Amino acid sequence: MRTSAHPSRRGQRGRVVALGVVGALSAALLAACGGDSGKPTLTWYINPDPASDKLAGQELLAKQCSTDQYTVETQELPTDATSQRTQLAYRLAAKDSSIDLMSLDPAFTAEFAAAGFLAPIPANDAKTFSDGKLQGILQTATYGGKLIADPLWANTQVLWYRKSFAQKAGLDMSQPVTWDQIITAASDNGGTVGVQANLYEGYAVWINALITGAGGAIVSDTTAGVDAKIDVDSPAGRDAAAVIAKLAHSKAAEPDLSVSNEGTVLTPFSGPEGAFQVNWTFVYPNYSSDKKLIKDIGWTQYPETVQGKPSAPPVGGINIGIGAYSKNVDLALKAAACITSEQSEIRYAVQTGNMPAIGAAYDSAELKKTFPADLLALFRTSLNAGGPRPNSPYWSDISSALQQKWHPPSAVSESTPASSSTYIEDVLHGKALL
Question: Is the pTM of the predicted complex or chain greater than 0.85?
Answer without folding.
Answer: yes
